[in-house]
Amino acid sequence: MKRETFGVRRSAFVLACLGCVILYAALAFGIYNGLTRHALGANDFYSRWMGARALFLRGENPYSENVTREIQMGMYGQLARVDQDQVAFAYPLYAAYVAAPLVIFPYAVAQALWMALLVMGVVAGALALAFVNRLALSPITLAAILLGALFFYPSVRGIFLGQYALFSFTLVALASFAIATEHATTAGILLALASVKPQPVIFLLPLILFWAWCNGKRRVVWGALLILALLLGSSFLLVPSWFGDFLNGLQNYAQYAPVGPPLETFFKLFAPNSFATSLFFIASGLLIVGMLAFVWKHRAQNWFAFQTSLGFAALVTTLLAGRIGTPDQVLLLIPLFAWLGQAQSQTRRVLLIFVALGMLTAPWLVFLNLLEGDKEAIVVTTVLPLFVSAMFFALTFLGRHKSQPLRLT
At the N or C end, where does the chain have fewer CB atoms within 10 A? Predict the structure, then answer.
């Protein structure tokens, strides 16, 4: 009987994987025929793709001026002005590994394959969070999750920009599912790979590893550290100067793209720059201390109950992380799913459904009302973090949200 059950499960798994491959191929084909063969885009991915091509096809340093100029010519048709985004390869070198399988294709095909991967990744991440938080997936709930995740403003913007932030979110969500299902080594590997874009995981990665260490899941920690060591070590073998080049790229990026963290942007809307900066540093210190205290207090909780702490870390990330844009705010699905999963009453679930609707519609309304040409108004970056901050304070710190113990039934 056990062998038969295992065979049935393995067959179901193989069929599910085959279905995902077919769906991915169909989605990529549709995006190519309907979009990318006619109009190229996904500018954030283009820089990483061109950098990967230079590295793996020609052996060039993707941070070099020659490669940066090549990216500018491909994107703008001319060299970038001083006041323009220089569109340089400004990620850790191992971010090129993600784009490596696509460098052999023309960009129109590579973009379609990447956008299809991001679409499926967002859906997979949302479903993983739903499973981790033990939501009852009725057909209506499943449809709401799929549509909500895909039409969530950070998801849509991230997909059309080809943002690595969605890739990192997907890996974090899948790692969370792997922890919940006792696949510790897999979780560690996924967490390490999520660092291809550091901003979204700057707090989440160390806090998840801290929880894993405190709760005896050491394979999560060792798996993540081993893969990180391999990623960093192989990067130095390929381009020995990459880390210094990466830091210089970040410094240059701060000069030609002076977009601060959303909380700093919010303060600058109402106060002089110097005073707003002081407020930001004070608020940042308080939030980080509060996050660490919150995590320390709940470090012994099971993984289900600890999701609220991760939600707080995701919120602090979207408020404080430097150079973080609206696509990175897809992380705010983490606290939303935690609240939905741990709501104890039908009344609370109805309230949280309205919170979800607010998260879904508010950034779109602000974006459409403040749209100037094809540029996103900077105030849009503040909408979701501030909205979720208000909800988190109301539901957690005012004692109106209580965690529900994990039930193994």
Answer: C
Tell me how far apart the alpha carbons of residues 319 and 384 are, in angstroms, rounded to a whole number: 9
285 is written with which tokens?
């210190």
pLDDT tens column, 124-161: 999 999 999 999 888 988 999 999 999 999 999 999 99
Tokens 């193989």 correspond to 14
SS3 409: coil
Q: Give the integer Cα–Cα distance in Å for 90 and 96.
A: 11
Q: If you ran DSSP here, which 8-state letter would residue 239 be given?
A: -
Burial 142-176 (b: 16+ CB within 10 A, else e): eeebeebbeebbbbbbbbbbbbbbbbbbbbbbbbb
Give the integer Cα–Cα distance in Å for 288 and 325.
20
State both tokens at 43.
């500018």
What's the pLDDT tens digit per position in 184-233?
999 999 999 999 999 999 999 999 999 999 999 999 999 999 999 999 99
- The domain spans of the chain are 20-397
Please give the Cα distance from 1 to 13 (Å, whole number).
18
- CA 215, CA 222: separation in Å to the nearest integer? 14
| Residue environment code for 78-112, b if the CB has 16+ CB neighbours within 10 A, otherwise e | eebeeeebbbbbbbbbbbbbbbeebbeeebbbbbb
Q: What is the DSSP annotation of 286-326?
A: HHHHHHHHHHHHTTTS-TTTTHHHHHHHHHHHHHH-TT--G
Q: Whole-model pTM?
A: 0.91
> What span, in angstroms and rounded, lies between the C-alpha atoms of 153 and 155?
5
| Strand-pair partners of 375 | 372
